[in-house]
Write a structure and sequence with these properties.
With about 325 residues, this protein is an alpha/beta fold. About 35% of the residues lie in helices and about 25% in strands.
Length: about 325
C-alpha cells in the first residue's frame, strides 16, 4: 500500500508458506499527522515475529496480541486505539488522536491466492489496489484504472461508503537522469530524498563517475536509448535529459516518448526546445506526443544555480505526479 514496497506482504507470504502462520495488519484510518500513513503495514508471524510498522511503536504490542488471536479464529478484525497526548508526543505528534488497524490472518480472512497474486504484481511493478469490503468480508485486487486519482495521489483509504477500504501498492518511483552534468548532482540527491530510485545515464565516462555521484546507480557504457530499454520505463518513471547534446538526449527522449513514463523533461532554452521538437517531428512524433515533453524543464522560479534548477525540476516532476500533466 502507500509506501509499502518494503517486502511486508512478501514476508507475510513467506511465513505462511513456512507453516508458522502469518497476519497482515494495515493502518486504515489515523490522525492527521501520523508517523505512519494510511496503508502502512505490519506483518506478524505465528511466533510473534514482526516486520514493518503501523504506528511508530505506540500500539504495535497490542496489535501483535490481537493478531495472534486472529490466527486462532481466522477472522478479520478492525482495532481502534485512542492515542493520548503523551503517547502521541513520544512518537513525534503534536497531539493525540485515534488509529484504526485492520488485522487479517493469511489463508482465511486474507485468501492465500489473493496474497500470492498481490506479491506477483508487486514483483512485476504493476500498480495494484487491495480492496476490502469490511461489511461483506470480500477481498479483490483491482488495477490503477479503477482508482486513478488515488494512485496519482498515493492515497490509500476508505471510499465514501465507509466500508470499502482501498489499499494501494504503487511501485516505487524511479527517475532516469540523462547527462551527468552539475545539475544532476543535487537533483539525484533531492529525488532520492523524496522517494525516487534514480539512475544516471551518460556514455561520457569522464562525467558519470563514482567520484561525482557516490553511492548512486550509474550507467556509463550503454547509449541512453539502450540503457533505458534495459532499465525499463513504466508509469512510475520520470525521464529527464540534461546533457545539452542532441546525440545523447534525443535517443533518450525518443525511447521515453514510446513508453508510459509519467514525466519527460528536457533542459534547454525555448529556442533549443523548438529545435528539439522539430527534430522529433521529423522522427515521426505528432503534436500530442510532443506535448508530453516539459521544456524548458522545471517550474519558472527564477532558478540560477544548479541546485536551484534542480529544485525547479523536482517541483515540476512532483506537480505532474500528483496533479497530472
Amino acid at each position: 500500500m502507500t509506501h509499502s514496497f518494503d517486502n511486508i506482504p512478501e514476508t507475510a507470504l513467506a511465513w505462511h508458506r513456512e507453516g508458522i502462520g502469518s497476519v497482515l495488519a494495515t493502518v486504515v484510518e489515523t490522525w492527521g499527522s501520523a508517523p505512519r500513513p494510511v496503508g502502512s503495514q505490519l506483518a506478524i508471524s505465528g511466533e510473534a515475529g514482526i516486520a514493518g510498522s503501523v504506528s511508530g511503536g505506540c500500539v504495535e504490542g497490542a496489535v501483535v496480541t490481537e493478531a495472534l488471536d486472529a490466527l486462532e479464529d481466522g477472522k478479520r478484525r478492525i482495532l481502534e486505539f485512542g492515542v493520548s497526548d503523551d503517547a502521541a508526543f513520544a512518537v513525534g505528534l503534536a497531539c493525540g488522536g485515534r488509529i484504526r488497524v485492520m488485522v487479517e490472518p493469511v489463508g482465511s480472512a486474507l485468501p492465500l491466492e489473493i496474497l500470492e497474486e498481490l506479491c506477483a504484481k508487486r514483483k512485476q511493478r504493476i500498480p495494484v489496489a487491495y480492496v476490502v469490503n469490511t461489511e461483506a468480508g470480500t477481498v479483490t485486487l483491482t488495477g490503477s484504472d479503477r482508482h486513478p486519482e488515488r494512485f496519482r495521489a498515493d492515497r490509500s483509504g476508505f471510499e465514501e461508503d465507509g466500508v470499502t477500504f482501498v489499499g494501494l501498492h504503487n511501485p516505487p518511483l524511479r527517475m532516469a537522469v540523462i547527462g551527468a552534468v552539475h545539475i544532476a548532482q543535487p537533483l539525484v540527491g533531492m529525488a532520492r530524498a523524496v522517494g525516487y530510485d534514480p539512475i544516471i545515464i551518460d556514455p561520457r565516462a569522464a562525467f558519470a563517475t563514482e567520484e561525482r555521484f557516490p553511492d548512486e546507480q550509474i550507467e556509463n557504457e550503454a547509449w541512453p536509448d539502450e540503457a533505458l530499454e534495459n532499465w525499463g520505463i513504466d508509469t512510475r518513471t520520470a525521464v529527464i535529459t540534461l546533457s545539452h547534446d542532441p546525440k545523447i538526449d534525443d535517443p533518450a527522449i525518443i525511447t521515453a516518448l514510446k513508453s508510459k513514463a509519467f514525466y519527460i523533461g528536457c533542459l534547454g532554452s525555448t529556442r533549443t526546445h523548438a529545435k528539439r521538437l522539430t527534430r522529433l517531428e521529423e522522427e515521426g512524433f505528432d503534436a500530442e506526443a510532443l506535448a508530453r515533453i516539459h521544456g524548458p524543464i522545471g517550474l519558472s522560479i527564477g532558478a540560477k544555480s544548479p541546485a536551484e534548477i534542480a529544485i525547479s525540476i523536482m517541483a515540476e516532476v512532483t506537480r505532474v505526479l500528483r496533479q497530472g500533466a
